Amino acid sequence: MRTEDNRGLRVSGVTKQYPGTIAVQDVDLDIYPGEVVALLGENGAGKSTLSSIIAGVTQPTTGTMTWNGEPYSPATPGDAIAAGIGLIHQEMRLLPDLTVAENVMVGRWPMRSGFLDARSMREKAKVQLQRLGFKGGMDATVRNLSVAGQQQVEIAKALMLNASLLILDEPTAALGQSETEALFDCVRSLQAEGVSFIYVSHRLAEIAQIATRIVVLRDGRKITEHASGEVSPKQLVEEMVGRPVERLFPEVPPPTDKVVLQVQDLHDKAGNFTDVSFSVREGEIFGIAGIVGAGRTELVRAIAGAQHRHGGTVQLDGRTLKADDPMAAIKAGIVLIPEDRKQQGLVVSDTIENNIALPNMTKIGSGGWIAPAKVRKLARSVAAGIGMKGNVSLPVASLSGGNQQKVVIGKWLERNPRLVILDEPTRGIDVGARASIYEVIAELARNGNAVVVVSSDLEEVLGLAHRVMVLARGQNQGILDADEASPTRVMELATS
């Protein structure tokens, strides 16, 4: 370590204690100009707490920090930003009814003669967003953007800070391969200017590409530090979880020949997907890959009846399903685990048990009455089945991202579906929770369900799927068997 260098950030013996728990304990961390330090660990390891302390969101119980050789103890995020340190949160903090440009420039809107200079605002926002590969318009309302588009706006907003240290918390969670590469190009460009980064991610395949050092946390403590980013994912996983891990992706037997889902010439008026045809067999995990904007989410939502389709057919076990009718799809045996679990999959302010009960009222109600004892019994049974520990009477908001996703999956699996569609099933979820969700997906296939997995994480799609369909500009560019589906081949099709 370059202990003689006073530039950058030095964290010394930082501890954060809450009633009944220690979130971070005696952590030392140095960040030098032009570095990208990957901060790894499971949910609850202390990554977010440490990041929040550095960014002025939380104050440490004990310990000290220095910034460029001077004492540094931000009382608010504003103090940190003024010092040149910014945090890009995993949970986006955008104003949904403002435009893209207004969000990127919020708090720094250019003025002329006392009025907003809209043209200058659009131009400045466009410069930052183009660095990230953003394809939308500056006047688009943020509410109408995809999750990936919103993530790009969030990152561009932070880039406007001209910070010397940026903390990126799961910045690629909603991004595809091309958008991730654009972000990395931007990070490398800023590195060359002396900007440093703390990079928090569960996508271990990215670490070797972008990190100059790796710091691993477990149970609030710093476990180890690696002098480069070139460390095997298997070793990092074992350091994070504290035990040997044989394999991340479970083995799944080959599917049968029986076709469960048959999609024929599906298309919509907006051109999100055009003449898409494919089938999924009993016991098959069918992956859908493609860059952001390829139409993956729109396609699976249309299959589940949650989004309009203009033409084509969807058949489940030979029975043609009515278009644009999510209830008919659910009754037929199709369930969709959406990509945005907080906005579309859960009522986060309500309890775990009530969330589990919502799609299962016929099991726990009679004559218009719901029995609380039955609600709790059902919730405990579902929680045990998906490996979720804790009190089911607590709010969903109190759970980690991994356990929230388990609640979404578990509540729908209680309906014994025939087809399960999972859109970005492990977005923002740590490696330990990922492994358990992968096992749930594999068990569905072993039990004869048909499973469709949509993911921007190529490693995930290739590790799980028997076959992979690649979408580009809403069209099926090809379906690859597992033995021919490589990252290179998938990206060739996705960009063709």
From TrEMBL:
The keyword Lipid metabolism does not apply. GO terms for molecular function: ATP binding; ATP hydrolysis activity. Keywords: ATP-binding, Cell membrane, Membrane, Nucleotide-binding, Repeat, Sugar transport, Translocase, Transport. The keyword Secreted does not apply. Residues 9-244, 254-493 form the ABC transporter domain. It is found in: Cell membrane. One of its GO terms (cellular component) is plasma membrane. CDD domains: ABC_Carb_Monos_I, ABC_Carb_Monos_II. It is a peripheral membrane protein. This is Sugar ABC transporter ATP-binding protein. It comes from Arthrobacter crusticola. The lineage of its organism: Bacteria, Bacillati, Actinomycetota, Actinomycetes, Micrococcales.
